[in-house]
Write a structure and sequence with these properties.
4-stranded antiparallel beta sheet, transport, ATP hydrolysis activity, P-loop_NTPase, ABC_transporter-like_ATP-bd, ATP binding
Amino acid sequence: MAMLDVQDVSVSFGGIVALNGLSFSIEEGQICGLIGPNGAGKTTMFNVISRIYQATSGRVSFRGHDLLQVPAHSIARLGIARTFQNLALFPTMTLLENVMVGGHSTGTAGFARCTLRIRTGRAERALRDEAGDLLRSLRLDHLAFHPAAGLPFGTLKRLEIARALAARPAFLLMDEPASGLTHSEVDELSETIRSIRDEFKLAVLLVEHHMAMVMGISDTVVAMEFGSKIAEGPPALVQSNERVIAAYLGTTP
């Protein structure tokens, strides 16, 4: 059974069809690149999986669970986390505190107890220790007590990954993580994604326009155009597909 199985998913906003019968699957431990021109529907698919958007039709299952019946607030507990194209960090908080925020969804203290600080010392210490371990894994531990504000963009991208990992996911959605990075930072990010996949036993769904990065780290690639799948398979096969070339270059296949 595939870890994530998307079958005939369609999403319409009034008369606009954002997804049109999209189907693909991701196995445990795979890195899957989801590519396509702007407006192809990639982020819409992300938002269906993370329950921000409701599918008009179709089915999405995650480890046998009907994902479309799971409320958005339960996604993290199910084992799904995501990063965003536009950073959503807390600039005045330290890197350690930012990562700890990501771990509260899987903590044992609960929101009410944390708010009222009722016997949460042990849980908070465990959360702090785990956040520190994640910062070390992402080579950010030397900045643990530094505020997020003012740090280089590539550093903040790694911080957001650390915060997502604090939720202990089995499946990580990454929305254009290379956006705004330099060439050297993109190379570093590629290595980071591969290493966290191996270290934390993750599957990764990656939306990205940086084709060299996608083709270099993905086990499988799904190419989209106008809400539909036009190719799926190993990177080399998708990269040479005439419909994919036409979608990106505007040529007639």
